[in-house]
Amino acid sequence: MATTVFVVVVLLRFLVPLLIPRFPLPAVVACLVLDAADQTVFQAFADDPLPEYQTYDKALDVYYLAVAYISAMRNWRDPVAFEIARFLFLYRLVGVALFESFERRWIVFVFANTFEYFFIAYEAVRTRWSPSRLSARAVLTMSALIWIFVKLPQEYWIHIANLDFTEFMGNHPEMWAVLGGVAVAVGLFGWSRRASVPVADWPFTVDVDRHLPKVDDSITGHERFFSVVLVAMEVLLALIAMIFAEVLPDVRSSNAGVALVVAVLVVANAAISQWLRRRGRRWRGVGRLFLAMLAINVGIVALDVLLTGGGGDQPATNTLFFMLLLSMLIALFDRFRATRREAEGFKIIRDSLRREQMAAGN
Fold this sequence. Notes:
Blueprint lengths: L1 H14 L8 H22 L7 H23 L3 H24 L2 H6 L3 H13 L9 H25 L4 H7 L2 H19 L35 H20 L7 H24 L6 H24 L8 H20 L9 H16 L1
Helix pairs in contact: 1-2, 1-3, 2-3, 2-6, 3-4, 3-10, 3-13, 4-6, 4-10, 4-14, 6-7, 10-11, 10-13, 12-13
């Protein structure tokens, strides 16, 4: 029974994030719920506490956040919002990598996971309004408020104060009244400000494709090969791979070796895809590209076992799981890379803020 529950939970946590590019808000919330409820599920259906799941849990957390980032690359047409998301995600990855290396809880607090809630807030706006209506200052302010007033207190509570919400509320039942009062106050304030809410651009929807401006990627392939997007994804995937190698036992490679292999795979795959597009062809769907990447990666692992283990061992399950996650991320990146343009970077944020300041001055 324990094995069945383990497989079902891991499978759900692998498949549900794949809905994020099309249905970002409900899918990422579902990922949050799965992440929060997995231990409760194990306790309810299995006597075995499954301590080995903790390593899979960490890797799957990084995996679904990476899919959310790639979906932002696909869906967020505002370069300011995307650059902020890219910085927040990269910042978090650096923090996770440092934490896995040094195991100091304050690192997680300093490198708070602001990206996740920023992603949710931005996609919540999209349910009824076009995100293009948000100014650069508004997007930057939203990310700063989430960082300072939501994530830093949350990370302090969990990782510095080391408090458990259920236990704390059990010891202080009066706090339920305080929380209820805060909820009522927020509701009343929102009701009083309802007249200032802008008119919706469309009926409520969580399907981004219903109102997402189309990008004609059939003409791509002649863009510059080495771009900000490719370099950023090289760094991100290398960091993700290094984190996977740290948290998953028996992954047979050093951090430097993992980063090098990932860099070669990303560049080689991007080159093949661009070569195909220049000839009017492309991979037929993410599924086929994923299977191709998985076959190549598993082949590399098998070759490594053959050369270093005398051919007697089979690739470790954790190593294959690592390759499964990595192959999917590479496939998703390649599929959605064409939606981003070259002239993006933090200069766009600076220029946008200057233009808004000049417009306000006039």
